[in-house]
């Protein structure tokens, strides 16, 4: 079994969650905040059988949109007097896949 941790834009979280659930994946959603933009996003935790990892990632990829967002350059460390907006690309999904040593429901 693998643990998938996926960070998606909060605007995509409902459609991603619905698609995963419809395909039979068990999902836990956490309301999280990106350290860079300090904006809300959603982190999904999923325990997935090895042979279904690619199917879960395909759903995440399909329903997580890439977006561009303007941020003040002070986010990059510019001083306020020299601040100008910069464009960053956010998403689709940031995905980590790790091994699960033990999985039990007690
Ligand atoms: P944030 O940390 O708010 O980052 C939002 C977007 O800002 C990132 O999009 C990236 O395009 C840009 N960005 C982040 N850190 C940057 C930096 N030091 N310099 C320049 N640009 C930077 P994504 O890469 O799609 O990440 C979306 C969210 O996924 C992140 O929100 C964060 O919550 C999470 N994330 C991404 N990579 C991660 C990692 N290696 N570990 C943990 N969380 C991660």
Report on the structure:
By secondary structure, the protein is an alpha+beta fold. It contains 2 helices and 6 strands. The protein has helices spanning 13-22, 53-63; strands spanning 2-9, 28-33, 40-48, 67-72, 85-90, 93-99. It is elongated and about 55 Å long. The protein starts with a strand and ends in a 7-residue tail after the last strand. The mean pLDDT is 92. The structure holds ligand 2BA. Ligand 2BA binds at residues 7, 34-37, 39, 41, 88-91, 94. Residues 7, 34-37, 39, 41, 88-91, 94 line the site of ligand 2BA.
Helix content: 10-25%
Q: Using the alpha-carbon principal axes, give the shape.
A: elongated
Low-pLDDT segments, ≥5 res: none
Spell out which ligands are present: ligand 2BA
Radius of gyration: 17 Å
> Strand count, sense and closure of the main sheet?
4 strands, antiparallel
The count of β-strands is 6
- Structural class by sheet pairing and helices: alpha+beta
Mean pLDDT: 92
Query: What is the strand content?
Result: 35-45%
**Cα distance, first to last residue?**
17 Å
Note the total helix count: 2
Strand order of the largest sheet: 2-3-1-6
Helix/strand order:
EHEEHEEE
């Amino acid at each position: 079994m693998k643990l998938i941790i996926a960070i998606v834009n909060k605007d995509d979280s409902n459609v991603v969650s619905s698609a995963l659930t419809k395909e039979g994946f068990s999902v836990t959603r956490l309301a999280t905040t990106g350290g860079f933009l300090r904006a809300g996003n959603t982190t999904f935790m999923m325990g997935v059988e090895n042979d279904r990892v690619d199917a879960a990632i395909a759903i995440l990829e399909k329903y997580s949109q890439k977006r561009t967002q303007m941020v003040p350059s002070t986010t990059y460390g510019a001083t306020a007097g020299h601040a100008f907006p910069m464009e960053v690309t956010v998403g689709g999904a940031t995905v980590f896949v790790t091994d699960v040593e033990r999985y039990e429901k007690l």
